[in-house]
């Protein structure tokens, strides 16, 4: 809606193709690409296809993730490796592939963190560790890449999703209402487009040119620790 051409990368082509169709129905430009971000060759090919289609790469949003909800004593090294591959290695690969384009003319990087890491969440140790590793990358690259006009920031979002719908169904209205009253000063779940999308647009635009290495919390006030 703000005028960006969007390349969508995902392992399941049908999902990114559906979102691509939604963008085009709104009058936007979009490109759907099957890509496993843990595979560097996949990422390189996708970024090359994006640059070929749209001329270059100006903005990178790293949002790929996987997680397993399990008590720490039951978590395995395989769980940790799988989570880090999706979250951290996937982010690393996309950063590496996009860097030559961003260095050439400046640009924006937006990484997705999680309240699981910033605030702490039970049964999410591997995911929390991976998401905090991404925030570490965010701060380090903000320092390295600032000289090239590249801003690197992070968002910690809390929004409606298929996973959230499953949680609501499992816990029921009373427990959900209690959770909002206890943990959310703004007593509702965020809307992905209106509440979180606006933060992403801000970080992708020239309005945030003097902000880098920061984490913005689009979470209804849920995270109390920074």
Q: Can you describe this structure?
A:
The chain is α/β, with parallel strands linked by helices. It has 7 helices and 6 strands. α2 packs parallel to α3. It starts with 5 loop residues before the first strand and ends in an 8-residue tail after the last strand.
Layout: helices, strands, pairs:
Blueprint: E1 6-10, H1 13-25, E2 30-34, H2 40-54, E3 59-62, H3 77-105, E4 107-112, H4 115-120, H5 125-145, E5 150-157, H6 162-183, H7 192-204, E6 215-218
Parallel strand pairs: 1-2, 3-4, 4-5, 5-6
Helix pairs in contact: 2-3, 3-5
In short:
This protein has 226 residues and is of the alpha/beta class.
Structural key phrases:
alpha/beta; four-stranded parallel beta sheet; two-stranded parallel sheet; 7 helices; 53% helix
Task: Please give the radius of gyration in angstroms.
Answer: 18 Å
Share of helix, binned:
40-55%
Please identify the structural class as seen in this structure. Answer: alpha/beta
- Mean pLDDT comes to 91
